[in-house]
C-alpha cells in the first residue's frame, strides 16, 4: 500500500497537543495516587495514559519516550493486578520517570529528538523497584522491532496488511471501526458454534475484519469462551450491540468504537509507522479531531471563525444604523416594523453566535491550575516545608490566548509563595502557627473580568524593608508601599528580594500581566500572617467593551475597563501647574490632557475653547488622568484588530476597530498616554 | 516561464512588483483619514473588516501631490498576516517577465535609492524599476526613498 | 396471543418434555412432527412462529428439513437440537440461517431462553 499526502508536521503537532493534555492528567493522577495509593481509578487511569503515550510516541518514532512510557505501563499493569506493590521509592521513581517524559516532550516540542536522553537509568530503577523481570533486547516499543506476535491490545487482534486495507477502505467509506468482545458463558457446551452465532449475526450487518480466535478454522472449543471481533459498519453502536445481543447464552458483551488512538495503537503495535500515519491521516481529514463528544479545532481555524463573527457584528451594527435611518423617515410604517423585527432578530442571533464562538475560545482555567499540585509537591519536598494546596474555581473559563501567557507569571507567583512566603515548620511553630502552610489558588469571573487569587498564610511582606529599599516616604501607606514589588526594576535592587521575602521577579510578572494581557495585579499582605496576590484579567483579548468618543472630528475608543468615570469639566476647574494642566476635582488634583492637542497638535486658537468640556477620567495603576474630548458618543463592544505599525508610530493606540457605519476607530492606549505624561509629556515624542 | 509582475506608474516612472505580493487592486475609495499617521499615509481602508493603511507612493517618493483621478488605484499588498495598500497613479498591466530580461544590478533609476531596487527591466521603450515595496513600507518615515537632490 | 411452536423430534419423550415446559410457560404447541418430511409439511401447513428441530431424525434429517423450510420461508425462526460432536453441522446450520441451537441433554430453562431470545430477535 502507498499513502500520500501525509503531513508529518501536522501529526507531530497533534501529538504534542495531545501529549500535553495527557501529561497533565498523568500528573494529576500521580498526585492523587500519592495521597491514596490504593485508588483504583487513578491506577487504571495512569495505566491507560501511559499506554496511550507509549503507542503514540512509538508511532512517531520517539523510541526513548515510548520506552519509558512502556515501562510505566508495565508497572501500573502490575499494580493493577496486584503483582507490584506501590512503595515509597517506587512512587519516587515513577515521578522521576514522569519528569523525564516531560523533559523529552519539551525537547520534542522545540524540534529536537529524544535520542540524546538517557532513559536507561530511570527504566532500570523502575524495573528494579517494581520487581519486573529484567528484559533483554530493545527498550523501545514498536518502533525498533515491531513484534508481530505482540498483542495489539487486550483482545489480541493482530493486524496485517489485509486488515489495514480493510480498515482504510472502511474509513474512506465513512464507516466506523468497532471492536466487539463477547464472553460466552462458561458452562456452555459447544462454545465455538455459539460464538459462531454472534459472528454470523454480525456478518449479516457489518464487515468483519478479523476475529480472535479465528472463526473459519475451528480451534479448540474452550478458546471460544472469548471472541473478539473487529468489524466496520456504517451502523451505530446500538444496532451493532443489539444484533450481537440477540444471541442467547452470552455472558458479557463489550463494544468499543475505535477512535484514532486505538487504531494507531493497534497499528503501531504490530506494524510500521507508515500505515499508522495513513490511518491517522484518513481519520483526520482536517485539523479537527473527534474525541468522544469533544472536537479539537486548530487555533487558526478558530481565529478565522472569530474574524468572521467579528465581521458579522459589524454588519449587524450597520443594519441597525440603517434601521435607525429608516425609522427617521416619514411613512412606510409597515416596512419600518419589518426592518425593526429583522434587525432585532439578527441582533439576537449575532449575540448568541458571538457568545457561542467565544465559548470555543474559552478553556477552563483547570488547564493551568492542574499543573500546580505537582509544582507545590515537588518544591515543598525540596524546601522541607509542609504545604497544603487548595484550588478553587478550576472550571472558570478563560481565553486560550491568555492561558498561554499567564502560565509563567502564575508559576512564578506560586514559587515565590513557597520559597519566600511560607515559613519552614520550625519557624511556623515558633510563630504559633499551624505547622502545615497553606496556599490557596482560586479563580472566578466577576463582571467582564477573571479574578485569580493566590494566597498563602506565610510571613507576609516586610513593609519596612520595602519602604527602606525603595526609598518611599513615610506618609505613603503600607498598602501602597507593597505594590512597589511590581514596579519595573524593583527586584533588581540589591538585597530587597530576600529581605522582603518576596518580590523576586515580581516586576516581570506584573509587566507581563499588565502589558501582554491588559490585566492588573495587586498585592495585599498582613505582616506575619498572609499574602494575597490578585490578578484581574479581561475575559478575552479581542472584544473590548469601549466608550466611543469624538475628538476634532475623529472617533476614538477608550476601553471601559480603563475608565473611572466621565465628568463635565468647566474651564475654571483647570489650572496650570508647572506648565502642565491640572484638573481640580472633588478636592483632588489630577493631570488633565486635551486629547485634541495630542492627536492633532496643539491648538493655537485658545479663544475658541469651550467653557465646558466632556472629560473621561482614566484610571491606571500609574494613577488617574482626565482626558478632555469633544463628545461621548456611545458604549460599544468593539472587535479589536491589530493596528499597522505605519499608523501607530507614536504607539498611542492599542488597536483598531470598525464601527457599524464602516467608520474606522482607533482604540486609545491609556497606559501609554499616562506613560507619556509621566515621562515628560507629548513634546518629548 | 517568466514571473508575473504588476506594472504601475508614479509620475513618469514605471515600476514593477511581483504579482505574488499583490492581494488585490482597488479604486481609491472610502479612505479614512488618520490624524496621527505620517504625512505619506493617506489614511486607512476597511477591507473585509481589516483596517489597512494606504500609503501614498507619490508623497513617499517626494513627488508633488496630485488630485485623485479615475486612473488612480490602490494596490493591496500582502505579506504574512499584514496587508498594506499603496496608492499609485495608475496600474498599467500585468506582465510576464523572463529572468534574463531583468538586470539584477540595482542601478539608480528615476532617482530611486538603490536599496529599494531589486532590478531593472526594459520593456518596449520603457524602463521598469523592480521595486522592493516592502522595504519601502518598512523604512522609517523620515528616511527618503529617493536620492537627495533629485528634482 | 401466545406464540405458536412446532416441535420436531423422532423421540416422543423429547417432544413431551418440550411440550410440557413450553405450555407451562404460555406457549402454544401447534403441532408435532417425528420425521424431517413431516416437519416441513407441518411447517408449511401451520406456519408456526418458531420451530424446534432435532438434527437426528429418520426419513429426512433435521438439517435437510431446515433447508427446505428456509426455502419456503426465509424468515423462519428455527432452533436446532443437537448432540455434542455435531458442532460442524451446527455451524453449517448457523450459516444456513438458524436462530439458535440447543445441545442435548438440556435443561428445560435452556429451551425456554433460546426460544424467547429467538422470538425477540
Structural features, described:
The complex is a heterotrimer of chains A (685), B (151) and C (121). By secondary structure, chain A is of the alpha+beta class. In chain A, 44% of the residues lie in helices and 23% in strands. In chain A, the strands form six sheets. A six-stranded mixed beta sheet of chain A has the order 16-20-21-19-18-17. A five-stranded mixed beta sheet of chain A has the order 8-10-11-13-12, with helices on one face. In chain A, strands 22-14-15-24-23 form a five-stranded mixed beta sheet. In chain A, a hairpin with a 2-residue loop joins strand 20 (612-620) and strand 21 (623-629). Mean pLDDT of chain A is 77; it is low at 1-6, 134-154, 272-295 and 492-502. Chain B has a single domain (3-138), classed as CheA-289, Domain 4 (OB fold (Dihydrolipoamide Acetyltransferase, E2P), Beta Barrel). Chain B is globular. Chain B has helices at 57-60, 133-138; strands at 3-10, 13-18, 22-27, 41-47, 50-56, 73-79, 82-88, 90-97, 102-103, 117-123, 126-131. The longest helix of chain B has 6 residues, at 133-138. The termini of chain B are far apart. Chain B is mainly beta and 151 residues long. Chain B has two helices and eleven strands, in the order E-E-E-E-E-H-E-E-E-E-E-E-H. Chain B has a six-stranded mixed beta sheet, with no helix packed on it. A five-stranded mixed beta sheet of chain B has the order 3-6-7-5-4. With 121 residues, chain C is an alpha/beta fold. Chain C has one domain: Rossmann fold (3-Layer(aba) Sandwich). Chain C has helices spanning 12-24, 36-46, 62-72, 87-96, 108-120, and strands at residues 4-8, 28-33, 50-54, 78-83, 100-104. In chain C, strands 2-1-3-4-5 form a five-stranded parallel beta sheet, sandwiched between helices. In chain C, strand 1, helix 1 (12-24) and strand 2 (28-33) form a beta-alpha-beta unit. In chain C, helix 1 (12-24) packs across helix 5 (108-120). The radius of gyration of chain C is 13 Å and the shape is globular. Chains in contact: A-B, A-C. At the A-B interface, helix 11 and strand 23 of A face strand 4 and strand 5 of B.
Amino acid at each position: 500500500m502507498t499513502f500520500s499526502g501525509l503531513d508529518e508536521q501536522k501529526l507531530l503537532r497533534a501529538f504534542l497537543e495531545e501529549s500535553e493534555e495527557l501529561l497533565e492528567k498523568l500528573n494529576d493522577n500521580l498526585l492523587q495516587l500519592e495521597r491514596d495509593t490504593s485508588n483504583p481509578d487513578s491506577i487504571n487511569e495512569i495505566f491507560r495514559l501511559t499506554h496511550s503515550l507509549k503507542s503514540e510516541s512509538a508511532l512517531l518514532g520517539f523510541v526513548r519516550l515510548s520506552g519509558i512510557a512502556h515501562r510505566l505501563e508495565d508497572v501500573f499493569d502490575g499494580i493493577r493486578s496486584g503483582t507490584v506493590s506501590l512503595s515509597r521509592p517506587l512512587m519516587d521513581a515513577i515521578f522521576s520517570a514522569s519528569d523525564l517524559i516531560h523533559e523529552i516532550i519539551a525537547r520534542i516540542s522545540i524540534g529536537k529528538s529524544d535520542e540524546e536522553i538517557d532513559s536507561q537509568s530511570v527504566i532500570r530503577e523502575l524495573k528494579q523497584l517494581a520487581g519486573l523481570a529484567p528484559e533483554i533486547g530493545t527498550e523501545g516499543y514498536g518502533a525498533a522491532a515491531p513484534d508481530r506476535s505482540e498483542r495489539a491490545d487486550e483482545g489480541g487482534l493482530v493486524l496485517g496488511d489485509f486488515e489495514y486495507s480493510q480498515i482504510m477502505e472502511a474509513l474512506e467509506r465513512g464507516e466506523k471501526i468497532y471492536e466487539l468482545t463477547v464472553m460466552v458463558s462458561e458452562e456452555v457446551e459447544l462454545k465455538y458454534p455459539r460464538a459462531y452465532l454472534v459472528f454470523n449475526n454480525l456478518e449479516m450487518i457489518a464487515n468483519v475484519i478479523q476475529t480472535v480466535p479465528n472463526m473459519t478454522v475451528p480451534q479448540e472449543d474452550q478458546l471460544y469462551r472469548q471472541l473478539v471481533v473487529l468489524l466496520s459498519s456504517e451502523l451505530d453502536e446500538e444496532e451493532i450491540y443489539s444484533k450481537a445481543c440477540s444471541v442467547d447464552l452470552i455472558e458479557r458483551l463489550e463494544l468499543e468504537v475505535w477512535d484514532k488512538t486505538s487504531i494507531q495503537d493497534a497499528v503501531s503495535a504490530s506494524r510500521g509507522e507508515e500505515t499508522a500515519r495513513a490511518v491517522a491521516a484518513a481519520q483526520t481529514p482536517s485539523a479537527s479531531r473527534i474525541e468522544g463528544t469533544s472536537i479539537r479545532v486548530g487555533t487558526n481555524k478558530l481565529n478565522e471563525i472569530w474574524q468572521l463573527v467579528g465581521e458579522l457584528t459589524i454588519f449587524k451594527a450597520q443594519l441597525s444604523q440603517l434601521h435607525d435611518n429608516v425609522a427617521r423617515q416619514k411613512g412606510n410604517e409597515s416596512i419600518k416594523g419589518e426592518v425593526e423585527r429583522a434587525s432585532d432578530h439578527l441582533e439576537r442571533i449575532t449575540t448568541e453566535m458571538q457568545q457561542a464562538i467565544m465559548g470555543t475560545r474559552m478553556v477552563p482555567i483547570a488547564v493551568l491550575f492542574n499543573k500546580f499540585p505537582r509544582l507545590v509537591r515537588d518544591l515543598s519536598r525540596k524546601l522541607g516545608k509542609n504545604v497544603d494546596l487548595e484550588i478553587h474555581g478550576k472550571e472558570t473559563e478563560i481565553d486560550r490566548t491568555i492561558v498561554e501567557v499567564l502560565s509563567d507569571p502564575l508559576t512564578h507567583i506560586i514559587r515565590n509563595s513557597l520559597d519566600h512566603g511560607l515559613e519552614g515548620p520550625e519557624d511556623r511553630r515558633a510563630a504559633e502557627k499551624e505547622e502545615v502552610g497553606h496556599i490557596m489558588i482560586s479563580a472566578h469571573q466577576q463582571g467582564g473580568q477573571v479574578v485569580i487569587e493566590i494566597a498563602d498564610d506565610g510571613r507576609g511582606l516586610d513593609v519596612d524593608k520595602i519602604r527602606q529599599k525603595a526609598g518611599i516616604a513615610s506618609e505613603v501607606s503600607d498598602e501602597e508601599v507593597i505594590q512597589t514589588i511590581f514596579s519595573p526594576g524593583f527586584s533588581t535592587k540589591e538585597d530587597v528580594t530576600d529581605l522582603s521575602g518576596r518580590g523576586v521577579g515580581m516586576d516581570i510578572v506584573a509587566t507581563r500581566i499588565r502589558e501582554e494581557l491588559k490585566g492588573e495585579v495587586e498585592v495585599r499582605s498582613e505582616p506575619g500572617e498572609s499574602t494575597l496576590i490578585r490578578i484581574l484579567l479581561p475575559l478575552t483579548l479581542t472584544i473590548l467593551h469601549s466608550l466611543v468618543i469624538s475628538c476634532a472630528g475623529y472617533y476614538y475608543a477608550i476601553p471601559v475597563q480603563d475608565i473611572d468615570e466621565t465628568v463635565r469639566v468647566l474651564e475654571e476647574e483647570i489650572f496650570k501647574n508647572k506648565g502642565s494642566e491640572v484638573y481640580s476635582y472633588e478636592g483632588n488634583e489630577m493631570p488633565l490632557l486635551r486629547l485634541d492637542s495630542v492627536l492633532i497638535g496643539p491648538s493655537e486658537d485658545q479663544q475658541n475653547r469651550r467653557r465646558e468640556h466632556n472629560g473621561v477620567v482614566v484610571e491606571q495603576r500609574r494613577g488617574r488622568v482626565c482626558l478632555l474630548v469633544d463628545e461621548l458618543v456611545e458604549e460599544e463592544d468593539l472587535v479589536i484588530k491589530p493596528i499597522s505599525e505605519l499608523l501607530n508610530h507614536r504607539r498611542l493606540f492599542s488597536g483598531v476597530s470598525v464601527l457599524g457605519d464602516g467608520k474606522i476607530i482607533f482604540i486609545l492606549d491609556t497606559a501609554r498616554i499616562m506613560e507619556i505624561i509621566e515621562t515628560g509629556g507629548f513634546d518629548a515624542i | 516561464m517568466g514571473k508575473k509582475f504588476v506594472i504601475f506608474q508614479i509620475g513618469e516612472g514605471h515600476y514593477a512588483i511581483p504579482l505574488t505580493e499583490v492581494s488585490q487592486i482597488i479604486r481609491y475609495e472610502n479612505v479614512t483619514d488618520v490624524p496621527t499617521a505620517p504625512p505619506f499615509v493617506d489614511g486607512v481602508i476597511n477591507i473585509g473588516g481589516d483596517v489597512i493603511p494606504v500609503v501614498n507612493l507619490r508623497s513617499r517618493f517626494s513627488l508633488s501631490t496630485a488630485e485623485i483621478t479615475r486612473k488612480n488605484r490602490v494596490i493591496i499588498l500582502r505579506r504574512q498576516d499584514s496587508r498594506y495598500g499603496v496608492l499609485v497613479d495608475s496600474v498599467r498591466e500585468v506582465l510576464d517577465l523572463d529572468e534574463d530580461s531583468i538586470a539584477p544590478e540595482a542601478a539608480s533609476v528615476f532617482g530611486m535609492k538603490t536599496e529599494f531596487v531589486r532590478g531593472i527591466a526594459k520593456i518596449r521603450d520603457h524602463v521598469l524599476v523592480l521595486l522592493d515595496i516592502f522595504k519601502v513600507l518598512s523604512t522609517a518615515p523620515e528616511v527618503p526613498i529617493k536620492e537627495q537632490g533629485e528634482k | 396471543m401466545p406464540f405458536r411452536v412446532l416441535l420436531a423430534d423422532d423421540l416422543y419423550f423429547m417432544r413431551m418434555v418440550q411440550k410440557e415446559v413450553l405450555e407451562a410457560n404460555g406457549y402454544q404447541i401447534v403441532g408435532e412432527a417425528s420425521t424431517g418430511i413431516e416437519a416441513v409439511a407441518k411447517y408449511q401447513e401451520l406456519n408456526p412462529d418458531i420451530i424446534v428441530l432435532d438434527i437426528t431424525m429418520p426419513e429426512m434429517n433435521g438439517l435437510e428439513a431446515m433447508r427446505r423450510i428456509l426455502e419456503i420461508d426465509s424468515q423462519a425462526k428455527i432452533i436446532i437440537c443437537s448432540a455434542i460432536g455435531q458442532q460442524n453441522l451446527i455451524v453449517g446450520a448457523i450459516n444456513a440461517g438458524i436462530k439458535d441451537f440447543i445441545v442435548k441433554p438440556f435443561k428445560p430453562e435452556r429451551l425456554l431462553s433460546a426460544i424467547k431470545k429467538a422470538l425477540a430477535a
